[in-house]
Amino acid sequence: MKIKVALVGAGQRGKDIYGEYAINNPHIEFVAVAEPNKIKRDIFAKRHGIDKEFVFESFEELFKKDKLCDAVVIASPDDTHFHPASLALKKGYHILLEKPMSNEKDECIELGKLAKQNEKVFLIAHVLRYTPFFSKIK
Questions:
Q1: What is the pLDDT of residues 28-62, one digit of tens each?
Q2: Which CATH class is domain 3-137?
Q3: Domain extents in the chain
């Protein structure tokens, strides 16, 4: 069974890390992308064979649609995580959110409450802890 996922933020981390992971692992498939930069959006959509109907300029457009997949990966800039994450949780998506959850304590608390209320998996990606640089420091 494939996990169908939408991507919010098709920059380096979204495109190169999560996008390429999906290309190399048949159990995950990106079926939608929300990215304000047309070039990045189009590259990601083409690489993953995403139907034009599910290619969005903003996360707001994505979340206006009926729920269309299982989960959302949010890899947008750090200071933009709260709003797409809160909309995704309210819409019923599981989430993998790049760190930080938010730069505001109250928003972090709110996201935790929304995840619990909606009984969704809500993971924060701390991927740098596994890089050779940090391993050497440890």
A1: 999 999 999 999 999 999 999 999 999 999 999 99
A2: alpha beta
A3: 3-137
